[in-house]
Design a protein that fits this description.
With about 80 residues, this protein is mainly alpha-helical. The chain has helices at about 5-60, 65-80. The chain starts with a helix and ends with a helix.
């Protein structure tokens, strides 16, 4: 074999495993990043859900007694009729 062929074989023997390892590392890093992003998104969604639940709970008032409820219904019915 000529010198040029030996050099090309040497370069390929060194570069091909490096390229394969780099591609594998990129794929693994992508999966890791995607998993972490999904986990962070789920945590954020849960935190927002909890915050919304707490805000809704704080706006709920005490139950109305039946007399007040009848007055409210009559008032709404009166407004709807006009």
């Amino acid at each position: 074999m000529r010198l040029r062929a030996h050099l090309i074989a040497l370069v390929l023997a060194v570069l091909l495993p490096m390229i394969a390892f780099s591609a594998l590392a990129i794929v693994m890093l992508d999966r890791y990043q995607r998993t972490n992003t999904e986990r962070a998104a789920v945590e954020l969604a849960r935190a927002l859900m909890t915050a919304v639940d707490e805000a809704l709970r704080s706006t709920i008032t005490t139950p109305v007694d039946p007399g007040e409820l009848a007055a409210i219904v009559a008032s709404v019915a009166g407004r709807a009729a006009t």
